[in-house]
Structures are given as structure tokens and as C-alpha cells.
Amino acid sequence: MLEQFKKIKSSALSAIHLVKNLADLEVLENKLLGRKNGELTGLLKGLKDLSSEEKRIVGQAANDVKQAIESAWAEKKLELSRVEWVKSSEKESVDVTQSALPLSKCGHFHPITLVKNKLEDLFISMGFMVLDGPELESDYYNFTAVNIPANHPARDMQDTFYIKKHPNWLLRTQTSSVQVRAMQKYEAPMRAIVPGRCFRNESTDARHEHTLYQIEGVVIDHGINFSNMKAVLEEVVKNLYGAETKLRLRPKYYPFVEPGVNGEITCVLCAGKGCRVCKQSGWLEIFGAGLIHPNVLKEGGIDSKKYQGFAFGFGLDRLVMLKYGIDEIRVLKSGEMKFLEQF
Amino acid sequence: MLISFNWLSQYLQLPGGVTPEQVAEKLKLSTVEVEKVERLGANLEKIVIGKVLKMEKHPNADKLLVCEVDIGQEKLQVVCGGSNVREEMLVALAKIGAKVRWHGEEELVELKSVAIRGVESQGMICASTEIGLCKMFPLKEEKEILDLSGRRLKIGAPLADALNLDDAILEIDNKSLSHRPDLWGHYGIAREVGALFKTKLKGYSVGKFKKGNDFDLRVKVAESKLCPRYMAVGIDGVTVGESPSWLKQWLLAVGLRPINNIVDITNYVMLDLGQPMHAFDAANLSSRQIIVRLAKDKEEFVTLDGENCKLDSSMLVIADEKQAVALAGVMGGEASGVSINTKTIIFESANFDAVSIRQTSMKLGLRTESSARFEKGLDPSLCELALAKAVELVLEICPDAKVVSNVVDEARWHLNRGIIELSMEFLQKKLGVDIKQKEVEEILKNLGFGLKAKKNILNVTVPSWRSGKDIVMAEDLVEEIARIYGFFNIPSQLPIFPIAPPEENKLRNLERRTAETLVKELGYTEVYNYSFVSTEQVKNLGDDLSKYIELDNPLSKEKPFLRRHLLPNLLENIKKNLESYDELKIFEIGKVFAAGETGVRAETNSDELLPRQDTWLETVFVNKKDNTPFWQARRAAETIFQSLNLEWQIASLDKVCVWEHPTRLAILSHNGKVVGVIHELNPLTANAFGIESRIGVLKINLSKLAEVMKEKIDVYKKVSVYPEMTRDVAFLVKKEISHVEIIKTLSHVDQLLKKVELFDVYAGDKLGIGKKSMAYHLIYCHQDRTLTTEEVNKAHDKVKTILKSKFGAEVRE
């Protein structure tokens, strides 16, 4: 019987060695190891008729033979599988450059929303509240409360839409209208931004709109000074335009601040070298700011001897236009899908 | 405003080598916006004075001439299209190689020898716009060339030398000057530049003159509040004519066209000191009495430039006994102006109330150099200086002139010049930087402030030209010091704040989350539309115009109303884009204005309330092939509420707005409050907006939702380890039976029934009119054990029985 096992081992191993494909391997497997008619299986079945002494000797040998055949078979199977996979994987090739079908279409945010959200997130991370106020506002909150009394020339600078039959109602010309509302509601200390829609009664052209977006900011606390304002706004522009962005402040008159400044950054397009967008100056004006005028704090019920503050305002439309190189402001509110789909 | 560098330099000893560009840069960083510095003589190489000798018609072009131009050394043949070119004319001739701007465009182009329509042109006869001189020589008509005739100019001389163009002009943005009345003349700017360069301003010198006594000039100021000071003097023996060239040169340099010597003098004084002046022809005044009074209602007045104005009783005029002769501070009258025949003039140098001038000039639409200055609030002390300067100039320019009247000074003015107390501590606290007291004192002194120091406290007197509204408190002084010290010299220091998180803005978060869902999950695109709607849009919508808030001064007459709904403008978006798309999904989030509903307080201590201004989300869906886009609108609502993790209910609605499809309409509620509507647009409304396709609309009042929002709390339920069994049921019912009713009923049928899920609805002619087929998955499960088939059968039979009995359903077995 030992001989038989030896024989089957050598014939099986050479047969396995010669097999060329998985199908033949399977046939061979059946022939050798099949449950009913397998040659090796049959031989193994015969073991039970042996004496225990023989069983010990022959059984050991039979087991070695079985293992040798099985491992040769497994090795062969792996080898053949690899060969077959190489062939079939070639057949399964797809055009990876083609879109997944059917097409799924994502929608699009308005570019103003994209920039607004980014600024909001930045300010929230710096501990600012996000506030809102009415777009149809009273003359008081839009002008008088922020130190622009009746007949102040600054009222001319912002051509205003007024409401019929309500001479003291208007469409807010600036988000600064929320400053005093916020002070009255939250008192000092306070940090808040107000993103929102504003209106100016001026004819539209490529650079002017009657409907525009601003983000107003207010910081009020003990001992807030010019140096603080400069530092906070530097952080903001660096976050928006990169760490190497430089900020410069220049004097500008706004009735609700003293001193008033406008903030310019090194041109984002030419890095300060001078180009068409920055009118060759290397600088782009992107916000107005200043230390809050004591009259405004007073209107907000805040003691200007105890608290100081600064305020700032960004023109969102301008930031959007700079970011995406848009040279026609009216396209922002055109509802033109071919434009909106780009964002 | 244009500022001449040479003019400024007369008043200052600027450190050697300081360029106009450097002055401009300092002004920009510390004072005003300088938009441009233009070197007058720049880029004028190879442009010379030429004289047109002969001209002939161009053989091949109607509108061109072939000129022979003498440029001293040689004569050139030049093709020219100028409308005013004539023989003997002195012109600016650009030789080959000169740099010119074609048609006044920004870019400089080098001139080459060319043949124009077959005729060689050896140069170009220039228009002022082509050589950067349009400020000095504004065009009167489009095709006009620069006419230099009448000047003593050497033929062939370089243009820059001939016209003394060695000046530089600083173009200052007037808006940046609106709070600084003292900067509206060269002397004021010079003072500022002096402070910036730490160099002393020269005193303003004017000669004294003797008053005359040929006639007694009287001025009656009836409105001293509106005219705090009025000075006048009479001068006889003037010869009105062309100004001397130095005077014309100054005016031209800053863009003012010389008119005659008297008018030029008043303009010169205005540009020098910032004080507008006026000269009357004494012969045209009915008396030697000048009256400053309010106009009568509907009083008529003809201005210098021949414009007819109807005045009202808020407007201040200068009048003689018969009529108004000038609109105070705005413009002189035609009847009283100086002409070639004028022999005797009366100079006016006055101060007027800023608000009154501003209102008059706005009402009449007359904005002049004079009104622009007065409306900023001028220093009344300037009147005296300006008058003296003007008299000095007249006496110098007209040798026969002499002062023939008394000098009137009707004055009732007072300036608040301080004293303002400024402590170094306050300054430090405001700026966050220590500036040495000596430096602070120097800055203030250079700007003209008076100072008395008591240790660390400065008692500051405000100069007359900065008093009024400009400098009234210590904060104003802080600004003066900061800007001259230089904002760039103030270090940055981040403030220290507690780490408490900011209060959440619920509405804003809701806006962002709904937009996020619509864009990313549902493929909607966001638009921003205007807040205005037109009568026609409201009419097309079928809404009630009286519910709309109207603008008093709309930009266009077309859209005078404030939107109550976002829908009309969204429909216009659809209309506009539908030509190029088969499907559109658009939304907007924005405020709408509800007349008659009240919102926040209008003023601090008043009961008046502004109209309610809620933020709404509105979505529109259209697909040319989809005739029931209601489902897409509903899908949007479902997805939004799911992503917000909010429960919501839907119900049909009896009250229908005209623009809503009456049988495809539902209200959306959350937490027991109605927060929105889902509907299809009434096809007739769609047609009115020019749209043929069906439109699905979702509207959610986000302000309301933010107010009532209550997040769903999902309490954990232990997962049953026992298998679920699913049975389906399909049945026919009447169309009116709603899914909500079926769900509601089935939820109570049997404890084993855990979930009811709709998976198919079908209505068709085959089923019979008014019928629909519905199919549900029913999921049965027991928490504690495996269900037996009998149990499930029993429960399922119960379901069928109830469907039959309650809804008359024909259950398909």
C-alpha cells in the first residue's frame, strides 16, 4: 500500500505540474481528491481495513502524500489564477476618463454666498456674533444714530431710496445701521459682524450697483485702541489673501468713526507691482474702518469713557469681483445660469 | 480738484529734491486721496510749435486736409482731419518719433512716417487729448485740434518750453475732501504739506489798500444766520480784457479756462485761498445798496450761463432794490455780471451757511466750484484776506483802477475755537502707542493749532480754518496727530478677549443649512435678485398692489415696489434661462417686505414699528417634460426637513392665492406652526410670465421656522433580535383619499405593524375615473419573539379589513 501511495504521489505531482489552466486543474482535483471517485480518496478509504500497527505506519505516509498533493495543488491554483486574472483584467478595462452615468448635477452657490460664508466663519472663529437688521430701516438708525444728522453732507455721498408716505423710512445705505441697534441689545463688551444687503439710489454701470452687500464689524471693549484695530484687520486680510499680504491704512472720513481709515492690501493680482486692476498703484482698497465716534457709542447707550471700540465695513461685491476677476458688477444679480454655474 | 505743484511751492520751502510724486504719496497716506500726478511737460519730446502755411483738400478723402506746416528749420507736409484747422494757425506739431495718444486713449504710440490714403504725412497736428493736455485745453468739439494762435510763441520751439510746461498737477478726489473745507485751495494744501514735511508755511502776504469815498456802499443782511459775513468794496476804472499770461497760465494749469481779467482774478483767489468771490458790474445794479435776503416763492432768476431758475423762499439771494442779482454762494446772475464794457465793479467776499447753500444747489441742480466750497462750511475769516488779495490783483492788472468805496464788513459770526484739553494719556489710550510730547506739539503747531502745555496736558486752540464742525473734541485731535505721525508707524497689537463662544444666529444658520442641502443634495442653483418689483410683475402674479410698499424715489419708474415674494423675480430668471435649458432648479434666500405687518422698532424711544421683513427661501423647479413638478417641490421640502432633522407636517389648503394651482397645493407646518407652502404655479400665471412649462414652487419662511424650530429627539430603541416580516398590500381607492389619512389609520391597526411605506401610486383610465391604485410595504415585527405566520396573517387581514371598511378600498388579493 505504501507503494501505491508513493506512486500516486509522483504521478499526481507530475500531473499537477503539467496542468495548463484552472479548468484542467479542477478536473484533476476531482480525479485525485473527488469525494466519490477520487484516486487518493479511494486509497485513503482503504486505510480503515489495516491493522493498527500498519495503520500507524501507512497512515503517516498517506498523510504526507495527501499534504504534498494538496499543497502542490494549491500552489498551482494560485499560479494559474494569477495568469487567468491578468488575462481577464485586460478584458474588464473601462474608460476611466468617462463620467459616471447617468450624470448627477450638483447645484451652485452664488459667489457672494461663498465669500460671505468664508468671512462669517472667520469672524465666528474670532468670537464675533453674526447679526442681522432690517433692510427697510428708519432714518434714525441709518443716519442720525451713526452721527449723520439731518443736512449732513455725508447724506449726499450715499444717495438714498426713501419710502412713499413714510418720510423717515428708507432702504438702508449701509450695514452700519445695525451698529446702534446691536449696542442697545447686547451692550458692551461686544463683538459682532453684520453681513447684509444695502441700497444706493445710483444709476448702475459696470462698476456701480444700486443693490450691494456689505459686512459690517463692531468691537467694543475696555481699552480698545487703534493698534488693536490695525492688528485685527491685518489678521483678517492675511486669512483672506495669504500670510504675505500687507495692509496699509489711509485716512478717510466717515462720520461714525474718529479717526477714520480705509484699508488697502497689496494687490492680489500683481502682488503690489502695479496692474490694471489696482490702477498701477499696487494697492487695492477693500474696507473702511475707524475708532467708533463717541456720539455713536452714546446713541447706543454705551459710556465712551468706560468703553472704546472700532468698526469696519467690507464691500462684499468688490471682494467677490476681485476674487473671481469679475469686471461687470451687474452680472452678480443677473440670474444668468451660465454665469452662476461657474461657481 | 487740481493742485499745481509749482503753485504750492510758492508757499513752502520744501526740502531739496522733493518731487511732486513724493508730495502726492505723503498726502495719500495722511490727508487726502490723490488720484494722479501728471507732469505737464511729460512725453512731449519731438512736439513743437508749428504754423499752418497752406492747406489743400486731400485728393482721396473728403474729411482730410493736406497742410504745409512751418516748424522753423523746415516745412512739413501733414495730413490733418481737424475740424478747426486753418491757415496761419499756430499748432502743436508732433514730428516723426513723437509719442501721442490716438484719440485720447491711455496708451502712448510712437508716430511713424506713413502715407494716409496715398498722401505722405510727415507728422501730426495734435489735439489736446492726444498729448495729455486736455485738462489745460478742454475740447469744445470732438475733432478739434489744439489752437495756439494769439500767443507769442516761437515757431519750431519745443511745446513744453513754449508753454512753460514744467509743472506737475496733483489730481485730488473731491470726495476725500468733503470734511476739510480748509483744503479747497492751494494755500490750505500747502499748509498740510508743510506739516507732512515738517517745513514752515510762508505767511500769506497781501498789500493794504486805501478805501475810497466816491460812493457809499451799503449792505443789508436780512438773514445773518445764513450769511454770517458779507464783505464788499467798489473799484472804478477797470478795463475788462484778457488776463496777463502768468494768470492765465495758473488757471490753465489747474483746468480752468480763462475768461477775462476780473473773473480770472476771482477764480484765482478761490483756487488760492479756497474762498469763492464774485464781481458785479456796478452799472447793472439799481442802487448802491446790496441786500442779502431769502428769495420769494417762484421768484425768477437767470444765471450767468443763461439758465432760467424758479426760486423758493428757502433760497438765499443777493439782490439790489429791484431784483435778485446772484444766487448766494452758488452762481451770479446774467444781468449783473461783468462784461467787456464794465468800468466799475463791486467785489463780494462773503460767507454763507453750508446747509443752505447745499440745499439750494441741490434743488436747482446747480453745482459750481463756489457751492462745492461753501457747502463744506468755510472759515469766515477768509473773507477779509480774499478781498484784499483780489483788490491787490485788480490794482496791479488794471493800472487805472482805484478803490472808490468804503469797505463793507457786515459780520455776525463766532467760531468755537476751543480750548480742547488733550492729555498724553488719552492719546496713548486711543492709539496704543506712545508718541513723544515734543513730537505731538510739533505736529499740532505745524497744522496751525495754538498750544499751551501743562505737564502732560495740552490746552489746544483750534485755528479758525479748522473750527466749526471739523475739530471739536479731543478725539479729533487724536486723528490729526495719528495721521501726521503716520498710521504705518503705529504698531499692531491684537486685543485680548475672553474665550466665551459667540451667541448663535439661528436664522443665519438655517439659511446656510438649507442652501447647503439645496445645492449639494438637490442640485439647485442660488440666485440673488433685486428687492424691487414692477407693477406688471405684481399684476401678472395676480397680487394686490395695495399690499406693496412703494419707493418714493425709485431708480427706474418700472420697478417702484418692494418685493413681497421672491417668486416674481425667480419667474423672470426661469423665463430668461429656459431657452437654453430643459430643466432649471433655482432658489433665492432673501428678505421680503410686508406692508401692514409690523416688525422691529423704528427708533429708540418711539412706538413706531417698521414693516415686517422676514427672510424667505423660495425654490422653483421646471422641467419641460414634467407635468407634475409638484413632486419635485415636495422632494425639496422633504430633503430640507430631513437634513435639518426636523419633524414636519403637510396638509392641503383651502385658501388659494391666484398664482397657486388650487389642487396641487399644500401647507407645511413644523411644531404646530405653518412655516411654508408647496405648490405648483397656476399655469395661467406661468403664461402671464411668458412660461409654457409647469413650475413647482416651495416657499419656507425661514425667520418663522428659526423662531419655532425644535429639533426632533430620536430616543434609542433597542434593536429587535427577532426577524421582521414584510407583506405588501395593493388596493384601489378614490383619488380623494390621502396618503396621510391612510398612514394615520394604519398606525393604530395592530401592535405588530411597525412600519408602513408607500412604494407605488398609479392612476390611469384603465382603473376607472377618480380612482387610484396604491401599494404599501407593511413591516411586522415583535420585540420579544419570532412571529408566527398565523399571527402575521391575522394582523394583515385586519389591515385589509380596515382599508375596505374605512376607505372603501378594493384590495387586490
From TrEMBL, chain A:
Magnesium recorded as keyword: yes
EC number: 6.1.1.20
Compartment annotation: Cytoplasm
Cofactors named for this entry: Mg(2+)
InterPro entries for the chain: aa-tRNA-synth_II, aa-tRNA-synth_II/BPL/LPL, Phe-tRNA-synth_IIc_asu, Phe-tRNA_ligase_II_N, Phe_tRNA_ligase_alpha1_bac, Phenylalanyl-tRNA_Synthase, tRNA-bd_arm
Annotated residues for binding of Mg(2+): 258
GO biological process, any: phenylalanyl-tRNA aminoacylation
Annotated catalysed reactions: tRNA(Phe) + L-phenylalanine + ATP = L-phenylalanyl-tRNA(Phe) + AMP + diphosphate + H(+)
GO molecular function, one term: phenylalanine-tRNA ligase activity
Cofactor note: Binds 2 magnesium ions per tetramer.
Stated family: Belongs to the class-II aminoacyl-tRNA synthetase family. Phe-tRNA synthetase alpha subunit type 1 subfamily.
Subunit relationships: Tetramer of two alpha and two beta subunits.
NCBIfam families linked to this entry: pheS
Stated name of the protein: Phenylalanine--tRNA ligase alpha subunit
Species in which this protein is naturally found: Candidatus Magasanikbacteria bacterium GW2011_GWC2_41_17
Source organism phylogeny: Bacteria, Candidatus Magasanikiibacteriota
